[in-house]
Design brief:
The structure is a single chain. The chain is α/β, with parallel strands linked by helices. It has two domains: 253 residues, Aldolase class I (TIM Barrel, Alpha-Beta Barrel), CATH 3.20.20.70; 71 residues, Arc Repressor Mutant, subunit A (Orthogonal Bundle). The longest helix is centred in the first third of the chain and has 17 residues. The protein starts with 8 loop residues before the first strand and ends with a helix. The structure holds S-adenosylmethionine and iron/sulfur cluster (SF4). The site of S-adenosylmethionine (SAM) has 16 residues, from strand 4 and strand 5.
């Protein structure tokens, strides 16, 4: 790998959950404590091996799966190995993903004393019926208790909500959002349910035992939710993400700005200039890679110039601020309108706006961003 000096973010993948939700196709399993212990050992090996890439790291994100399910011993092991190779004076944000049931005073004390600054919590809903339908193990009361604990602790909180189940309406979804507003949550992610292969929902869908809301209905709910959050002064800074000013996710912005990051852990991806690396997706291969210190295990791809520019457009357009055309020129030495001539017609059709050297999707069209992007690239 080259360009070590410009890697700005570190992602660490914890592929374990206590329970598998019906909608989720992320890389995760339910595993024994022994299995998880071994994984964390190898993770620390990888952190040590890659330390030369962490010199300019500004953000750390431990995601999954559910990192909060790790035992205290395993978390400490990871935190200690990070401290050995990273200068925490340079870290502006350190996020960990958590399941509501794992958020205890002890857990919070542990992560805060180890420099974690931000929690991303899978709330999903406050309705017990909906939580059960999603296959979640927490209920509304657990969430109330969690917020009582969080209220006393100085940490930034982001919460995820899902919408798009057959019975969802704006009225029910509004209740979920209002709960978060009452708890003064500064960062909110709203995810439209996507029906993924190899999930329980997909199996049920194929046997006519599960239905999602129609695209039109979901679109209406989303637009109303956007209006509600806008009125409460949340910035819709990315398709699914809303935050008060000063609370945007710096780490996730690295992805949407098409900046460099390094991923650690089984199946984690790294993005270094034109190069894309993915760690082995099988635990056995991941361990072998670290034992043999061999690069042959990486899934490796080198993007050509056209692919790189397409990726830049795709990622940038997820943000409210869109593509900075001057920045595009600095990066690729090409005028974006010459590279993607369809931009002109898409702008005339009002699917995109062009203002102050920025090309962006207007908020009312965020929901159809994939359709718009496909018209350009
Ligand atoms: C991978 S999870 C990690 C957080 C943690 N494991 C939890 O669920 O509490 C990150 C988020 O992705 C979202 N997500 C996962 N699968 C999804 C799907 N099929 N459709 C929409 N959102 C999904 C959920 O909202 C979830 O909170
Ligand atoms: S949503 Fe979170 S807790 Fe549920 S299976 Fe996916 S990663 Fe695990």
């Amino acid at each position: 790998m080259n360009n070590t000096d410009i890697i700005k973010g570190l992602y660490i993948h914890i592929p374990f959950c206590n329970n598998i939700c019906k909608y989720c196709d992320f890389f995760k399993i339910v595993a024994s404590e022994k299995f998880i212990f071994k994984y964390c050992d190898y993770l620390t090996k990888e952190i040590h091996l890659k330390k030369e890439y962490f010199k300019n790291i500004r953000t750390i994100y431990i995601g999954g799966g559910t990192p909060s399910t790790l035992s205290k011993e395993n978390l400490i092991k990871i935190f200690n190995s990070l401290r050995k190779v990273i200068d925490f004076n340079n870290i502006i944000e350190f996020t960990i993903e958590a399941n509501p049931l794992d958020i205890t005073p002890t857990f919070l004390e542990l992560i805060i004393s180890n420099n974690v600054t931000r929690l991303s919590i899978g709330v999903q809903s406050f309705s017990n019926t909906k939580l059960e339908a999603l296959g979640r193990k927490h209920n509304c009361n657990d969430l109330r208790n969690m917020f009582d604990i969080l209220r006393k602790i100085p940490i930034n909180v982001s919460c995820d909500l899902i919408f798009g189940l057959e019975k969802d309406t704006f009225k029910t979804f509004k209740k979920d959002i209002k709960f978060l507003l009452n708890y003064k949550v500064k960062h909110i992610s709203l995810y439209a349910l996507s029906l993924e292969e190899k999930t329980i929902f997909m199996k049920e869908f194929k046997t006519n035992n599960f239905k999602t809301l129609s695209g039109d209905e979901s679109f209406k709910i989303f637009n109303k939710a956007c209006r509600l959050l806008r009125n409460k002064k949340y910035v819709h800074y990315e398709i699914s993400n809303f935050a008060k000013k000063g609370y945007f996710s710096n780490h996730n912005l690295l992805y949407w700005n098409n900046d460099n990051y390094i991923g650690i852990g089984c199946a984690a991806s790294s993005h270094l200039g034109k190069l894309r690396y993915t760690n082995p997706k099988k635990f056995k291969d991941y361990y072998e890679m670290l034992e043999l210190k061999s690069k042959k295990y990486y899934e490796f791809e080198e993007l050509d110039l056209t692919e790189s520019m397409k990726e830049e457009v795709m990622l940038n357009l997820r943000k409210q601020s869109g593509i900075d055309t001057l920045n595009f020129f600095d990066k690729y030495h090409k005028n974006i309108f010459d590279v993607f001539p369809n931009l002109n017609s898409v702008i005339s059709n009002k699917l995109l706006k062009y203002k102050d050297n920025h090309i962006f999707i207007p908020e009312s069209k965020f929901y159809i961003s994939n359709y718009i992007i496909n018209k350009i690239i």
